[in-house]
Structure formats: C-alpha cells, structure tokens
C-alpha cells in the first residue's frame, strides 16, 4: 500500500493517507504541481509557514530500475515568485520508494529547528537540530550518520538555507553518503529553512515491494540493456559525463563566458574546462569518471574529482557548474573550479545562481575575471549570515538590480543556465516559456543548429523537449536516459503497470508531460505572471555573441503557437 505523509510542523503532528496506484503513477513533478495548485500556493508568501514544501517520487523509485530514483521538490519559489520544481538524484528517493511513501508535504513552521526522522515502520520523530546549526553539509552529514547509522538517506539544508538565502537548495545523500546531489534551483532551501527543518532522515528498508515482481525484474534488466546499447548514453554520459557538453558548447559557441559576453572561452584544441581535458587527467590521478549517484543506475554519469595527490576534492563536477561558476566567471583552471564546487556543496547552494551572481560582481569591477581568491572569499563569506552574505544570497536578479547593472542574465528572476539563448535557440525558448524560470532542464535541445531550421520546427523541438522532460521528472527518471526512455514510451508504461498494478496505456506519457506544463502555467498565471515575463534581458537582443555573431531572435510575441498549446485546458 502506497501512502502520503503530511507533517504539520507547527503542531508537530504527522498525518498518513493511503494513495491509489493511479495517483502514484502521476508522481514527481506532476504531483508537486498538483498539490501546489490545489492548495492555492500562488496566494502565499513563499517564506510564510503556509507555503507547502513537497517531496515527491516516481512509481519506480526504490527498485533497481536505472535512473528512476530522483526526488522532486516543489514549492512557490521565493526566488522567482512562481511555481518551482527542483529535483535531484541520490538515495533519498530510493528510500522513500522502499517505504512506499509517494509524497511528503511539509506544512507550517516548527517552533524550533528539527531533524525529521522517518523509521522503517512508519514512525515520525521531531528531533532537536541545534547541534547541526551553522555546520557545512559535510560535517552535518557526518553527524547524521554517527547519530542514526549508515542505513539512512537524507535531505539536508546547508548554512545558507538557515538564514533563508535564495541561493540555497536541498542536498540529498549520494550512494557513498556525500551530501552532494542537490535539488538546487529556485530557493527551495530557503523554504525549508523558513520551516526550521535542518534535515529529513529516512531509514532505508532494504527492499522494494511491487505489484508483479518478475515483470519488474525483467523491466529492470531490459531497460539496463537498452541503455548499455545506446551510443549517447555509453559514449557520452557514461564515458565523459555532463562535462563533455562544455567541449561541445565551447566549439559550438554557446558557452557562457564572462557574463555571457562571449560564447567560446578558448580554441577547442586549447580548451581545458571540458571533459576531453578533465576526464583523462582525473583518471590518471586515480579519480572516478564513471560513478552512479543513485542505486541501480547504469548510466553512471557522475564523477569523483581528485587533486594532483589523488585526494578527493568534489563529487560531482557537472557541466552547469563548469559553465556558470567556471567560464562565466572567467575561470580557466578546472582544479580551482573543483575546489569552489566543493565549497558550494558544503554551503548547499545552486552553482548556477551562485556563478551568475559572482559574475555580476566582476561585471561591476569588484574583482577581476577568473580571480579564484576573490571567488573563494565570497563563497566563504556565505557561511555566516553577515550583511554581505545576506546580500549575495539574494541571487542574480536582486544583486544585479542593487548594483545598478544592465547586463543581468535572468528570466523570471532566475539565472540563465549554461546555454547562450542567442546560439542554443530551442533551449533558449524553453528557458523563456517554462513556468520554472530560466531552467534548461525543463526541456533541453543543446545540439540543434537552428539557424538553418524553419521557425515552426524550432518551436516544436522546444515543446517536445518540454513534454518529455516533464514526463521524465514526473516518473522520477533522470533525463540523461532520454535517448532511450523517450523512444520507449510503451515499455516505460508497461513497467509502471507492473510496479503498481495499473492499466495505463502509452497515451499516459503525453498526458503526464502535457499535464505538468499546463498545471505549472496555470499556477504562474494565477500568481500574476504574463508572457512579458518571458522576454530575454535586452542585451541578448542587442549584443552579438562571438564567435558566431548572433543576437537573440525570439521574443514572447513570436511564441504564440507554443503558448496556445501550453495553456490548453488550463
């Protein structure tokens, strides 16, 4: 029997409710959006006790089905003021799946800081968290394991979230226990901080209960086989990881460099901030470049980066961090970036938003481009809630406004991801139209050379990418399996039916994906957003980006065919 859990933090009470299998199928990002809409969260101050914070998983979580254990975190965003779903990998969703806990809703605010502990048999404890306050995530994680044993998974709030910094995300434990898999974007950590929840600890039961065990076992084997046969999965994600996208975008001209002034950091043969340079160097030092962040994943696109002495620095180093905290700030040394990445993980912050914010300080002339010492000092300042820390932790849009800058790369107050919308146009359209704010994960098409394509094909590419991303997010599936998953809709549906005992048809996939988009657009409309909020910052339309010399072509008025589809039934 699947259940949901609502925790009234103000009264410290727990309410369990049975969840029908059909409802479990519409999980993850769909479930977070549905709950937020039903609770009319668009009316609420994002940092008020009334704003719900929702954790939801997909129907295959807890099993060995590859890359199916992501956790969606949903709330009204204090950063964008719209709807937000941020998701992360790791072991937290795996533990919830084995507990058959489809979704968890935090309501109200605890009188004192707490650790929420869920036991295998469904007991809920509200335990004091005062000994964890002010600690970085790595030390806090060590203490959680010391207190509760190694057979736990957790969602953890870093020190920036404690003082409601909008850079803050929520860190999930990875397969080795690191607090390194972040649901990072939109200030979801600030909402957890406003509720005075330092961590959620879940005991891992150790086995998953499914409707038809033999069929699910066969689905697990078949899906793993399909992934291992897929060239994109094995030759790109498994072999190099997401950092390979840095090589591609640097050559393509879509890499953010020095606050989106350029699209290429260096000639491809001299580029040192991508997988072609970092992967062999890391392997030679004894690092891991094929690493699973969640149980059962055969894609294994994560990594463990080590220094010249072979000592671990950070896991993982991903493309978005390379793009925003790295090249967008003018960094050219991957070792320096790895150290900054570790600091960001310890702080529990979004490296996209943080990198975009630091670049604005350099834009203002407060530090030179690529100055590691300057960047390190700014990150270290975030550990304590000083006036400087609170200012930086507001995020890119608010810092840019306070500094009086005109070149501020945000949409709906959220920093643009590491795909220049002048060059990577289909992803740029996604970042404009998604209710999530500037978020590439809402529908990425990073390899399209769109200047030779008809406009209607570019819009269609963005729309299909958004539908597929929303369906994957709702099923708890990592989008890096999309080259297989998105082509195997009937098989994925059969796998869900085997796990739940449902009778869904392949039409379920599109119903799920399109349903998410319409829920989210409905929410933002009710929250007061209009299509004018989708417009790119003016400099993208005015400044050609080298080496291609492109300016942005698309404005909200050009996207009417997309809007008609996104608002159907909403």
List the helices and strands and how they pair.
Elements: E1 3-8, E2 13-18, H1 21-25, H2 28-38, E3 53-57, E4 71-76, E5 83-88, H3 92-98, E6 101-107, E7 114-118, E8 124-128, H4 137-148, E9 152-157, H5 159-162, E10 170-173, E11 179-183, H6 188-194, E12 197-203, H7 213-229, H8 231-238, H9 244-252, H10 275-285, E13 288-291, E14 302-306, E15 312-314, H11 319-326, H12 334-347, H13 351-363, H14 372-381, H15 387-392, H16 396-403, E16 410-411, E17 414-415, H17 425-433, H18 455-474, H19 482-485, H20 489-500, H21 507-526, H22 538-542, H23 560-566
Parallel strand pairs: 1-6, 7-12
Antiparallel strand pairs: 1-2, 3-4, 3-6, 4-5, 7-8, 9-10, 9-12, 10-11, 13-14, 14-15, 16-17
């Amino acid at each position: 029997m699947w259940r949901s859990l609502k925790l009234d933090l103000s009264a410290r009470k727990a309410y369990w409710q049975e969840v029908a299998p059909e409802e479990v199928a519409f999980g993850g990002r769909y479930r977070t959006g549905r709950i937020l809409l039903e609770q009319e969260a668009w009316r609420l101050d994002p940092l008020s006790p009334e704003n719900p914070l929702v954790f939801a998983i997909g129907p295959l979580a807890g099993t060995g089905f590859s890359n199916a254990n992501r956790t969606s975190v949903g709330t009204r965003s204090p950063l964008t003021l719209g709807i937000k779903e941020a998701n992360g990998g790791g072991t937290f969703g795996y533990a919830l799946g084995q507990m058959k806990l489809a979704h968890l809703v935090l309501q109200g605010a605890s009188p004192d800081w707490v650790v929420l502990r869920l036991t295998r048999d469904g007991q809920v404890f509200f335990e004091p968290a005062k000994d964890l306050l002010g600690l970085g995530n790595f030390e806090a994680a060590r203490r959680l394991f010391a207190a509760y044993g190694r057979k736990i998974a957790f969602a953890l709030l870093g020190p920036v979230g404690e003082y409601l910094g909008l850079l803050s995300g929520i860190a999930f434990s990875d397969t080795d226990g690191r607090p390194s898999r972040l649901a990072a974007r939109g200030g979801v950590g600030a909402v957890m901080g406003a509720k005075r929840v330092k961590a959620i600890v879940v005991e891992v039961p150790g086995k998953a209960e499914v409707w038809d065990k033999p069929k699910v076992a066969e689905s697990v084997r078949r899906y793993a086989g399909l992934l291992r046969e897929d060239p994109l999965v094995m030759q790109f994600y498994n072999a190099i990881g997401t950092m390979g996208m840095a090589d591609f975008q640097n050559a393509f001209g879509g890499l953010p460099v020095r606050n989106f002034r350029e699209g290429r950091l260096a000639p491809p043969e001299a580029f040192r901030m991508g997988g072609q340079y970092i992967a062999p160097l890391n392997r030679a030092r004894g690092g891991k470049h094929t690493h699973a962040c969640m149980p059962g994943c055969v894609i294994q696109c994560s990594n463990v980066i080590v220094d010249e002495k072979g000592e671990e620095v950070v896991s993982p180093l991903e493309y978005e961090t390379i793009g925003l905290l790295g090249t967008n700030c003018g960094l050219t040394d991957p070792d320096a970036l790895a150290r900054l990445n570790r600091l960001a993980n310890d702080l529990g912050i979004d490296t996209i938003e943080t990198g975009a914010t630091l670049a604005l300080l350099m834009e203002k002339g407060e530090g030179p481009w690529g100055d590691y010492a300057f960047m390190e000092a700014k990150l270290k300042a975030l550990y304590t809630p000083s006036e400087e820390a609170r200012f930086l932790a507001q995020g890119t849009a608010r810092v840019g406004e306070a500094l009086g800058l005109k070149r501020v790369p945000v949409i709906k107050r959220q920093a643009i991801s590491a795909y220049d919308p002048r060059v990577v146009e289909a992803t740029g359209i996604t970042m404009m139209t998604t209710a999530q704010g500037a978020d590439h994960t809402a529908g990425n098409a990073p390899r399209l050379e769109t200047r030779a394509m008809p406009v209607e094909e570019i819009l269609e590419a963005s729309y299909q990418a958004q539908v597929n991303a929303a369906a994957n997010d709702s099923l708890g599936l990592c989008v890096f399996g999309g080259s297989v998953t998105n082509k195997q809709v009937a098989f994925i549906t059969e796998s869900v039916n085997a796990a739940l005992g449902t009778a869904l048809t392949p039409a379920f996939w599109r119903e799920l994906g399109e349903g998410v988009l319409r829920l989210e657009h409905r929410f933002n409309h009710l929250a007061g957003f209009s299509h004018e909020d989708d417009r790119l910052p003016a400099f993208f339309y005015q400044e050609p980006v080298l080496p291609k010399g492109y300016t942005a072509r698309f404005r909200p008025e050009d996207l009417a065919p997309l809007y008609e589809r996104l608002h159907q039934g909403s």
